[in-house]
Amino acid sequence: MAVYLDHAATSPIRPEVLLRYTADLALVGNPSSVHGFGQRARMVVEDARESLADTLGCHRSEIIFTSGGTEADNLAIKGLFWARNNADARRRLIVSAASEHHAVLDALEWLEGHGPAEQRAQLHLLELDANGMFDLADLEKFLAERSDEIALISLMWANNETGVVWPIAEVSKLAAKFAVPVHSDAVAALGHVPVDFADSGLSLMSVSGHKIGAPVGIGALVVRRDVNLVPVNHGGGHERKLRSGTLNAVGASAFALAAAAASATLQERAKRDSALKQKLISGARNLVSNVEVTAESVSTLPSTVHLSFAGCPGDSILVLLDMAGVAVSNGAACQAGVIGASHVMLAMGRSEQAASECIRISFGYDTTERDVEEFLAALPAAYEGARKAGDAA
Ligand SMILES: Cc1ncc(COP(=O)(O)O)c(C=O)c1O
After folding, report:
1. Residue of the nearest CA to atom 9 in ligand 1?
2. How many A from CA of 103 to the centre of ligand 1?
3. Is the dihedral angle over the CA atoms 57, 62, 68, 73 positive or is it negative?
4. Of 25, 27, 152, 371, which has the highest C-beta tally within 10 A?
5. pTM of this structure
């Protein structure tokens, strides 16, 4: 039996979402058209907006539908940087961290490397400790010294590789004292820990559908009503002129349903996932002597387990587990089939070698105890095989 423990990469469509989505695919009409077909499609979008806003704790007018998390992150970071820099040319600093998802990191690096020299972004990446945490006091000190030059702060709600959860509401509170807007990539957090936009104090928040049981191709940027953004996409002026492009009515509806379902079951799943996580960790420790749990002493998502195996290449463990029918991830960027060291683990001070000796196991709505047992049953042989590969290297 195949076991899927890679929900942080993408989670299977929830059955109830699949039913609605496949039925809705027959929908005719562009939501921007004035005729009846268009208006019916518009109603699907607006119902979805209302429902998603309810789930995310924001006003419906604050939701800008996008194609997913990557687009939401790009619009947030570029749009806010340009708006803040246009209003005051001194504001060129962006505060973030090297453990962010590439959708954030690469957008930051692009702003640092493009445009007229005097308008390029300057990056201030917070130092992380071995648990992937930053020091709020360091952030406060930097804000106190340089707030006039800061365009924005972008810090993720939860890390998609290690599951480390950051104190986003505290960051927002601190930043508000210095009138600096904060964006958070909440793609990995949504559906696994409570995410409430209004309570968070954020200016901007990115979310994505396919991580929580909706289809790929739909996400949203939540934009607080007083926040100005310069659009990245130009065209028909959809979504308050912030994201031009024909609205994905069917996707929006599926996303809203998946988010509502994830939110309604959050507490019981968190309880179940915490128990599964404990079972997996103690099982792995009994089976393998040199397993290390990443960030064990700080707050992490109940649905994510990140393990390091000294001397065992993570890609070998991953392939051997896959051959045994168990799908996990090493969480690192995988381009053209080459798996490198995890940039997240590097940002946490690990060596290149240590940063390539880890795997991520992530649970979703349909994960069972049996899945964890199958993982544990396959682990010793995968570990032994990977250790030999490590010795031979
Ligand atoms: C934390 C985080 N941000 C952003 C993204 C990108 O989201 P999407 O795949 O919807 O573009 C991902 C997906 O892996 C993610 O885990």
Report:
1. 69
2. 7
3. negative
4. 152
5. 0.96
Structure tokens, 197: 């936009």
User: Whose CA is closest to atom 7 on ligand 1?
Assistant: 69
pLDDT per residue as tens digits for the range 292-322: 999 999 999 999 999 999 999 999 999 999 9
The strand pair at 3-4 and 326-327 is best described as: parallel
Q: Which one is predicted more confidently, 118 or 276?
A: 276
Residue type at 98 in one-letter notation: A
260-298 pLDDT per residue, tens: 999 999 999 999 999 999 999 999 999 998 899 999 999
DSSP strand pairing (122-126 vs 93-97)? parallel
In whole angstroms, what is the distance from residue 228 CA to residue 61 CA?
14
Provide the pLDDT confidence category of residue 230 given band limits of 50, 70 and 90: very high
- Check pLDDT > 70 for residue 66: yes
- List CB contacts of 194: < 8 A, sequence separation 6 or more: 266
CA distance 244 to 328: 36
Residue 198 in tokens: 């209004």
Structure tokens at 333: 């960027």
Residue 336 scores a pLDDT above 60: no
Residues with C-beta less than 6 Å from any ligand 1 atom: 68-70, 73, 101, 103, 156, 160, 185, 187-188, 208, 210, 219
CA-to-CA distance for 73 and 185, rounded, in angstroms? 7
C-alpha 187 to ligand 1 mean position (Å)? 6
Average pLDDT over residues 4-8: 97
Q: Is 58 a catalytic residue?
A: no
